[in-house]
Amino acid sequence: MPTLHYKRILIKLSGEVFAGKNKFGIDYSVVLSLAKQIKEIHQKKIEIGIVIGAGNIFRGISSKDKGVDRVSGDYIGMMATIMNSVALQNQLEKLDCDTRVMSALSIRQLAEPYIRRKASRHLEKGRIVIFAGGTGNPYFTTDTAAALRAVEIESEIIIKATKVNGVYDSDPMKNKNAVKYDTLSYRQIIDKELKVMDLTAITLCKENKLPISVININNKNNLKNFLFSSKIVGTIIK
Question: Who's near 23: CB < 8 A, 6+ residues apart?
Fold first, then answer.
């Protein structure tokens, strides 16, 4: 496998990773560790956009079971992504990384409004850009937001940073014999109904020929190794 290098990437961070060993909230030691990994690759002159989920704070899709309607739940989830984004920005700036949070929801005290051309300009100037607030619309996940932002900023790949080592044929947490895939096509993801991203996100990536990598971000070398080494890290979907 040849050494991979990309000029512009979009990292989709799972909100659950932010909770660390806890089931809820933000573990700032984990966020600092993530920030250090991001800084390490940013120093290699890679332009970085980031989208963060909100699973550590609130899941809109499950809110209906708790008496909250889907639309309200999704908006609460979008606001939770802003909390995670500001937390990551804070840790990145402690490491002297020039960072901007741009939000699809208007919250000017914490984030700039999302404007595609301005986001591209920030990236060109070497700033890390964190895209918060999802798409700004209910019924769309942060996976879809990641795919949409990646297409808009002309990212060369989406790196989905999660708690698992890649894509498996079944849940590796429940099945010790689950088989990991090194490579997959979009069609295989759809046909096998593999839970990598939601169907809208996968379809958007497929239509725009945007590859997706799934890696375990808890291994502190995975992000660096995926980008700069010849090792097979995680799963590539293309």
Answer: none
pTM above 0.70, yes or no: yes
Contacts of 36 (CB under 8 A, 6+ apart): 95, 220
Query: 168 near 157, Cβ under 8 Å?
Result: no
Helical residues (DSSP H) of the chain, grouped into ranges: 15-18, 28-42, 70-94, 116-124, 142-152, 186-191, 199-207, 222-228
Residue type present at position 4: L
The three-class DSSP label of residue 199 is helix
CA distance 130 to 100: 6
Nearest to 146 by CA among 214, 98, 94, 193: 214
Sign of the Cα torsion 133, 79, 96, 35 reads negative
Domains for the chain: give ranges and CATH numbers.
8-237 (3.40.1160.10)
What whole-number distance in Å separates Cα of residue 189 and Cα of residue 38?
Answer: 28
What's the pLDDT band for 176 if we cut at 50, 70, 90?
Answer: confident
Rg of the chain's alpha carbons, rounded to an integer? Answer: 17
Give residues with Cβ within 8 angstroms of 67, minimum separation 6: none
User: pLDDT tens digits for 129-160?
Assistant: 999 999 999 999 999 999 999 999 999 999 99
Cβ-contact 38, 97 below 8 angstroms: yes
Cα–Cα distance, 223 to 125 (Å, whole number): 22
Question: Tokens 């996940």 label which residue?
Answer: 141
